[in-house]
């Protein structure tokens, strides 16, 4: 090495020596860099063969059964309309307030008239009492007694009319403040501050989103397979394949004459308003004959984009196998694909796996159906 360095100029010998040292160190550290990361710990369960019923998949859509056009009960000028498109409202929340100054002035005047009428009725009552005494003493005639009775009755009638008038004005004032009739989301606004509203004029459209339903058209050959209260599976592709359970709520026993399908309505839970009206949904329910199928725990199925996969342990690595899911059987589900009974499918720690990744498995038991 020193004989080799003597051909370098004196200033370059240090650099050549440094490069040679780095080369020697890299060769020594090579085995360290070539080491593989440790296997990922996972849990696995053996795929099984089971007698399951065939599964039917049908397209459906989410609907809002309750959409209300909230209208004005009274008439007047809009002075408050704090609602915006898309706002989520609670039942009883303020929607619109109409100007009520004229109603309040009428209420004040009618209240004053009522107080005057009550005072005059009291006077007429005392006059009637004296007239009866004088009539008994034969001082007043029958005509004078009738006159006192008529005056008392007249004031009593006026009081009743004024009370009814005040009640009507108070009701008009109460109807000038309009509130949300139920929980929902504002899907349209149909008035603005400063506009005049007449009785019955629309204010906004309110859609209930907590009781959405799924509508699906079922071919007549599957009509007998559905019963009220039956639980089915519903998958939302727009929500990353979110899968939930829906329940058959209504079966409309009238087929479309062209498609020969029956409308079926399903109810489902919509946590945090995840689903929205108009979304497409795939409804799956068991129908037809039973047959042998490969089943795996539902925890083994991982959604990757638009594809379901199951990770199978082969030679110490995780192999991603695309599958199509079928009928669910308790905590298990039927799959179609290159998964065979007896293979070890990963059910724990499969959320972040990659194909070909080394794994170290431990068995996880699932109770068979």
H/E element order: HHEEEEEEHHEEEEEEEEEEEEEEE
Helical content band: 25-40%
Determine and state the CATH class of the largest domain.
Mainly Beta
CATH fold assignment of the largest domain: Elongation Factor Tu (Ef-tu), domain 3
Q: Please tell me the CATH architecture of the largest domain by its name.
A: Beta Barrel
Alpha-carbon distance between the termini? 75 Å
User: Could you tell me the mean pLDDT?
Assistant: 86
Please state the structural category.
alpha+beta
Strands, total number? 21
Rg over CA atoms, rounded to whole Å, is 41 Å
Counting structural domains, the number is 3
Give the strand content. 35-45%
The CATH homology group name of the largest domain:
Efflux pump adaptor protein, beta barrel domain
Major beta sheet, specifics?
6 strands, antiparallel, barrel
| Low-pLDDT runs | 1-8
**What's the arrangement of strands in the largest beta sheet?**
2-11-14-13-12-15
SSE arrangement:
Layout: H1 2-5, H2 13-33, E1 40-46, E2 48-63, E3 67-71, E4 76-80, E5 88-89, E6 94-98, H3 101-136, H4 142-175, E7 177-179, E8 184-189, E9 196-197, E10 202-207, E11 213-219, E12 231-236, E13 242-251, E14 261-268, E15 280-297, E16 301-304, E17 307-314, E18 317-329, E19 332-337, E20 344-348, E21 359-363
Structure commentary:
This protein has helices spanning 2-5, 13-33, 101-136, 142-175, and strands at 40-46, 48-63, 67-71, 76-80, 88-89, 94-98, 177-179, 184-189, 196-197, 202-207, 213-219, 231-236, 242-251, 261-268, 280-297, 301-304, 307-314, 317-329, 332-337, 344-348, 359-363. Helix 3 (101-136) packs antiparallel against helix 4 (142-175). The protein has three domains: 43-64 and 211-363, Efflux pump adaptor protein, beta barrel domain (Elongation Factor Tu (Ef-tu), domain 3, Beta Barrel), CATH 2.40.30.170; 74-97 and 176-208, OB fold (Dihydrolipoamide Acetyltransferase, E2P) (Beta Barrel), CATH 2.40.50.100; 100-175, Helix Hairpins (Orthogonal Bundle). It has 369 residues and is α+β, with helices and mostly antiparallel strands. It has a six-stranded antiparallel barrel with strand order 2-11-14-13-12-15. A four-stranded antiparallel beta sheet has the order 3-10-8-5, with no helix packed on it. A four-stranded antiparallel beta sheet has the order 7-6-4-9. A hairpin with a 2-residue loop joins strand 17 and strand 18 (317-329). The protein contains four helices and 21 strands.
